């Protein structure tokens, strides 16, 4: 159960006046919370059943621009409604906002009341259901890395996002003194999220000036995606309330390390056993785990777009930065795309290190579950683990290095089309295409500084 609030408990809090606002949220293509603020009384009286939103919410870019070229919705189609169907199991308090509760909604077709296929939540639910049919539960966790900056979002925007200054002046990886200085933000992040029913484990300084990491306990896949999206939203709101800003941009400066979102994953059976474990297997790995991991590796180029959805995402993949460039696995080696963690223990799992902090967790988890399941179905053999500095492994297969390349592997993927449908893959291929078109039209500061005088 991802929420921490029953509907009856919400009604009591509304009656007592403790809750006056309910956020009804969907998750858009970019992984953001979108929706409405309801007066709490209206929500518990009627809106708990359903509300509505414009169907362009699953066909816009980061700027909320109504992009042409989508089959699902367009100007010619008139931009109709979707149903926002509250999943009351996701009700939770929002302790960082006064008198507020939140619920996550499924996005449904206005006429059929079936889940919209390209909705990120629907895509993940479908893959979880496939695993459930096999008696398996994907158990996952994501790491959220981000940067804190001195100025507020408004100050940054008014300054043209130039002269960006992180909140600290030096690498603060595991650094207690520097992170003490940031506790006015990070302490409420931990405590408020925990009080919202999100099982926060810890925060720490990461490997750059002003860089933070938030870790949340492993959970069933849908819960993990929920936790991730809400936590990311909370970090931004809490930083804003403190007059600061937080950025989940994958690479904010060329000479600084990027921010990732590593995904840890394993499969549990109905009795709560980790089916990745086999004490007699090499490294403690079961055959199921070997097939699952082989699927992750084989199909990584196909699904990289869902781990790195923007032009900027690919600036992160650089040698010597702990961001991987090769689709191979290793045993506890942070230079590989996939890392075996917890060797020989009940916590055995695989960590995908490809994804950036800008990913949509629903999409990222959905495609990895699908790839792992494909590996199990095909009984794919697993190559031996890579060793040493994987950046130097010349024979290892490369991760797509640009959004253009990732869009092509997405568009041509037979596996993804069979799994999610042509409609869904064409929808996201168009999203990738639009990001490329917009970037190609832009004139960057780099071009001006390089060529203004010398060209």
TrEMBL record:
Gene Ontology biological-process entries: biogenic amine catabolic process; biogenic amine metabolic process; glutamine biosynthetic process
GO molecular function: ATP binding; glutamine synthetase activity
Statement: the UniProt record of this protein carries the keyword Metal-binding: no
Transmembrane segments: none
SMART domains named in the record: Gln-synt_C (SM01230)
Domain GS catalytic: 120-455
Classification via InterPro entries: Gln_synt_N, Gln_synt_N_sf, Gln_synth/guanido_kin_cat_dom, Gln_synth_cat_dom
Cofactor(s) required for function per UniProt: Mg(2+)
Coiled-coil region(s): none
Keywords assigned: ATP-binding, Ligase, Nitrogen fixation, Nucleotide-binding
Ligase keyword on record: yes
All residue ranges annotated as the GS beta-grasp domain in the record: 17-112
Alphabetized Gene3D superfamilies for the sequence: Glutamine synthetase, N-terminal domain, Glutamine synthetase/guanido kinase, catalytic domain
Purpose: Catalyzes the ATP-dependent biosynthesis of glutamine from glutamate and ammonia.
Similarity remark: Belongs to the glutamine synthetase family.
Name used for this protein in its record: Glutamine synthetase
Species whose genome carries this gene: Roseibium marinum
